[in-house]
Amino acid sequence: MVRCRRKAKLLGLGLDGKDQEIRVTRGEVFDILGGSEDTHRSMQEKCIKFGEKLQASGKQVEDLERQEFLDLAAQCRMNVLMPRGQED
Predict the structure, then answer these.
(1) Angle separating helix axes 66-75 and 37-57, nearest 10 degrees
(2) pTM score, two decimals?
(3) Looking at residue 6, what is its pLDDT?
(4) Beta bridge partner(s), residue 32
(5) How far is CA 67 from CA 19, 31, 59, 60, in A?
(6) In angstroms, rounded to a whole number, what is the distance separating the alpha carbons of residues 60 and 7?
(7) Mean pLDDT for the chain?
(8) Contact (CB, 8 A) for 33 and 13
(9) Closest by Cα among 55, 82, 46 to 67
(10) DSSP E strand stretches across 1-88
(11) How far apart are CA 16 and CA 18, in angstroms?
């Protein structure tokens, strides 16, 4: 039986873009869509930092336990949206 390994990525959504620009940035561990120029740049910086810390840990996004992910995101000052009923 062939098994496919799950691949996870961060998804950054910027909802404050008012200038009609379409901003998209793709990275190895993230995709960022939308936002004002400042918001998009901020998300890029945080996602790049997350990727660097992740690489230093020797893990992939899909390998992280929930708390590991939240701790790493907090170190990068990311806002994380949690599904309903799963808030700590």
Answers:
(1) 130
(2) 0.85
(3) 75
(4) 12, 25
(5) 37, 22, 14, 14
(6) 8
(7) 92
(8) yes
(9) 82
(10) 10-14, 24-26, 30-34
(11) 6
